[in-house]
Amino acid sequence: MDPEAVAQLLGGRGDNSILDELTPREREVIGLMAEGRSNHAIAARMVVTEGAVEKHVSNIFSKLGLPPSDADHRRVLAVIAFLNG
What we know:
The model has no long low-confidence stretch (mean pLDDT 87). It contains five helices and no strands. By secondary structure, the protein is an all-alpha fold.
């Protein structure tokens, strides 16, 4: 998704958003996920290791109530939840 579109979606958040559970760093990660970035690209952009990004993504999945599943793509579900906020 276009970074500008993601920024506009973030700007329209009201009270009690699902984002309230996420740390600022996790919000940054999920925003980059919404732009279609890979963990490698997110790590390069944020100047952190891929392991750090993986930890943030895992925390995001947990906070959004997205357990491991063979039937669902948690990354896509997380971005949808983020955009629906």
